Amino acid sequence: MLAAIGAGAAGTALGVAAGAAVASERNEADVQRQDGPVPFWGGHQAGIATAAQDRLHLATFDVVSERRADVRELLRAWTAAAASMTQGGPAGAPAPNALLPPTDTGEATGLAPGNLTVTFGVGPSLFAHDGQDRFGIAARRPPALIDLPAFAGDELDPTRTGGDVVVQACSDDPQVAFHAVRNLGRIGRGVVVPRWSQMGFGRTSSTTRAQVTPRNLMGFKDGTNNLRGDDPGAMDTNVWVGAEGPAWMRGGSYMVTRRIRILVEVWDRANLDDQQQTIGREKDNGAPLGRQAEFDAVPLGERGSDGKPVVPVDAHIRLAAPSTNDGVSILRRGYSFTDGIDPVTGQLDAGLFFICFQRDPRTQFVPLQHRLASSDALNEYIKHVGSGIFAVPPGAQPGGFVGESLFD
Amino acid sequence: MMRAPDRAVALAGALSAVLVLTACRASGSSGSSGAGVKTVAVSLTDAGCSPAALQIAAGPTTFVVTNQGADAVTEFEIVKDGTIVGEVENVAAGLERSFSLNVDAGTYETRCPGGTDAATGTLTATGAAASSTGAASASVDAAVVAYRTYIETKTDQLVARTRVFTAAVLAGDQERARSTFAWAREPYEAIEPVAEAFGDLDPEIDARANDVPANTWTGFHRLEKALWVDRSLAGMAPVATKLRADVAKLHALVRTVELDPAQIANGATELLGEVSKSKITGEEDRYSHTDLWDFRSNVDGAQAAFVALRPLLAERDPALAALIAARFGAVDRALDPYRRGSGFVPYTDLDDNDTRTLSSTIDALAEPLSKVAGTVVGA
Fold first, then answer.
1. Which of A146, A148, B322, B378 is the most exposed place for a label (fewest CB within 10 A)?
2. Domain ranges for chain B
3. Across B243-255, average pLDDT
C-alpha cells in the first residue's frame, strides 16, 4: 500500500511553508546556484540545468504491481513528496499520534536542503516487457527511448543495468540526498522494489558558467567544454525535447547513465606523459595540449615540430569533441563514486558514474559512445559496468505531477 | 587484448632494409624522429592514392595519410619488390593517421586498395638516406639488443606454435586444438605491447567477443569459443587461416621495430596492466579458463624486459633494481599453488581470496616497475 500522503494540492497537505509551494514561473535554465532551495515546479524538471550539486544519490526501481492506477498514484505521491523535500519540508504530513510510524524518516530534519533536486524518469521496460504492454502505455513509448546497443568493450553487470523508473537526487549534503531517495522508496513500498542505486561523492562536471571545473578520480579537470545549463539556446537545441515530441515529453529530456569503473591502480602507475596524451590535456591546469589555459580552444588541427598532432588522434577530448562528431553535444552531469573493494581483485571499485542528458540519444549518446568505445585511448583504463536509459518527463505545476500526461 | 594503440613502442629500422613504423602517438621520449624528418601528405580519395605519383627525397620521412571522405579506401601501403615496407590501415573517412619510414633511394609502388582509377601509384625517392643515429651508451645498446632478441625469439615461437594449433583446427581435431590453445598463445601474451603498436593486428589476433562487432571477430578467442562453447569447428577454417597469416605478419613487422629503453620499460608496465585488467578477472579466456597461462606469459614478458634493462637500471638506481627483482620473485611464488604439470589449473578453480592475493602481488610489482622508464632515461 502506498503510504498516505494526503489528498489535494501537494503543498498545503504536507504542511509545508506556504511560500515554498508556489509554482515557479522561472525557466529552469535561469536557475543558478542560489542561497534558497531550488524551485521544484516549472516547465522543466530541476536537476538537469541546475548547477551541479556536490553529491548524488540515484536509485532505480522496478514496478511489481500490474495495475496502471498504482503507477499513476506512485508518480503523484512521489511528486508531492519531492516538492516538499526539495523545499526543506518533510516527506509527508506528520502522523497524528505516536502509535503510527513517522511519515518522515527524520535524518534530514534540521538540515538545509543544500540545493536538493529530485528528478524522475521512466525506462523502456516500463512501457513493455517481454512483449507485454504492462500499463497500457506501450504505444506512447518515444522512439528516442531505445534500448541502448552493445558498445565495444562493455562489461555490463545486469544487476547494475536498466530499471523501470529512476530517481535522481542531488544535493550538496549527502544525507539530504539519501533521505530523499530512502523516503521515496518507502512511499513506493508494495508498488516498486529497488533495483540498483548509486551514491556519488564529487561532481565531475560543471553545468553552469559560474562553476569551477572539478576533477574526476583520474585527477583531471572534467567538464571544461560541457554544455551549460544556463545557456537556454544550447539547452533547447541539445537537451530539451521540442516539437518532435511526443507531446507528453515536450520539455523533458533523455537521461543516459553509465557506471564507468576506472582501473585506478593501473592508471596511477601510468606516467604523466601517457596520462596527458590519453586525455589530451595537461593534468595540472587543464590546458589542452599545445595551449596554456584551461579554456583555450582545443587545437585539433595543430601539429608539433615532429609533424604529429599535438592532441593525439586517439586522445579522449578529440574523440568526444562536438567538432569531430558532427556537432553532437550532450549535457554531462556525472559524479565520482567508490563502492568499496572489488572482491575479485582487492582493488578499489571506483570510477565515474556518468550521467548525461540529451534531446535524442539515437543521434547523440549512441554515436558518440560507439566512437569512444572503438578508438579512445582512455579505454585501457576504464570499463563500462552498468548502464541505464530513461525518458525524463517535463516539469509539473502544483496540482499536477511529473509524468501525468503519460497516463492521461 | 589491449585496447587502444599504444605509445609504448616507436619503431624504426636501423641498418639496411630500412623499415620504420611509428604508432599513432609520439612516445614521451621520442626515439627516432627529430631534425631532418620530412613530412609528406597523402590523401585517400575514391580514386585511391593522391597524389598517384609521389616524388620525395630519400631519408627519414613521415607520411601523413588523410581520408578525404572515401568509404571504400582506408589503407595506404608502400611496396618494394612485392613486400610491404610501410603501411597504415583503418584510416576511416575523415580520419588521419601517420607513419614514418627511413626511405632508401629508389622506386616503389604505392597501393590504396579499393580505389577506382588510382588504386596503385608510384613513389620515387632520390638522394641518399641518412643512417639512423645510434644510441649513446653501451648499456643502452646491450639492453636493446637483449630485448630485441627476446621478442624475435617469441615471434618465432608464436609462428611455430600457431601452426600446430591451427593445423588441428583445420583438421577438425577439437581435442588437439583445445590442448594446444593456451600453449600457442604464450609467446603472444609475452610480447603483447609490441603487437599493440601495429594498429589493428592486436584486435585481429586477440579480441574478445565484446571488443569488436560480431561480423569482424577473428583470432584466438573466436576459435576458443568454437572449441569450448560451440564444440564445433564448422566455418572456422578461414579464421584459422587468417590467424596464421596475422601471426606471420606480426613476425615480419617485429623485425622492424626500433626500441629504446623507456619504451621497453613502458611495455613491461603495460603487460602488468593487462594482468590487472583482464587476466586476474578471468575475462581474457572466458571459454577455456586458461587465463593463468596468459597471466604467466604477461609476467614473463615483463620480466624479460626488466632483465634486459637491469644493467642499465642498476647503474642509476641499484636499490630499485633489487626491489623489482624481489617482487618478480614474489609473483612467481604466488603462482606456485596453481601450477599443474607444465601449465595451470583453470581460472575457475580460484576463489576470491586467491585472486586478491595474486592481484596484490602484481600491484606490488607494477608500482616500482612503473618507475623504470623515468629512471633509465634520467634527468
1. B378
2. 38-126, 138-377
3. 95
CB neighbours of A402 closer than 8 A, spacing ≥ 6? A45, A75, A78, A79, A120, A393, A395, A396
CA distance B173 to chain A (A): 31
β-strand pairing of B53-57 with B120-126: parallel
Which tens digits make up the pLDDT trace of A149-168? 999 999 999 999 999 999 99
Instruction: Give Cα separations from A123 to A133, A141, A199, A202 (angstroms).
Output: 14, 9, 20, 26
CATH of B138-377, one of 3.40.50.720, 1.10.10.10, 1.20.1420.20, 3.90.930.60: 1.20.1420.20
- In this prediction, residue B96 has a pLDDT band, given cuts at 50, 70 and 90, of confident
Whether the pTM exceeds 0.80: the reply is: no
Q: How many CB atoms lie within 10 A of CB A7?
A: 7
Structure-model confidence comparison of residues B91 and A333, the more confident one: A333
B174 touches chain A (CB under 8 A): no
pLDDT, tens only, B257-279: 888 898 899 899 999 998 998 89
CATH for B38-126 is: 2.60.40.420
pLDDT at A267: 97
Region of A407 on the Ramachandran plot (φ > 0 left; ψ -120 to 50 alpha; else beta): alpha
Count of other CB atoms within 10 angstroms of residue A143:
10
Beta bridge partners of A129: A132
* Percent of chain B residues past pLDDT 70, beyond the cut: 85
CA distance B363 to A272: 18
Say if residues B245 and B10 touch (Cβ distance below 8 Å): no
**Residues B211-229 pLDDT 10s:** 988 899 999 999 999 999 9
Q: Which residues of chain A have pLDDT under 50?
A: 1-32
Cis peptide before B51 (omega within 30 of 0): yes
| Beta-bridge mates of residue B124 | B55, B107
User: Which of B3, B34, B96 is opposite residue A313, by nearest beta carbon?
Assistant: B96
- How far apart, in whole angstroms, are the C-alpha atoms of residue B291 and residue A345? 14
**Which residues in B lie closer than 8 A to residue A277 (C-beta atoms)?**
7, 25, 28
* A340 Cβ contact list (under 8 Å, min separation 6): A349
Residues A269 and B367: beta-carbon distance below 8 Å:
yes
Residue pair B203/B1 in contact by the 8 Å Cβ criterion: yes
pLDDT score of B2 more than 50: yes
Q: What one-letter code names the amino acid at B95? A: L
| Nearest C-alpha neighbor of B20 from the set B67, B82, B84, B74 | B84
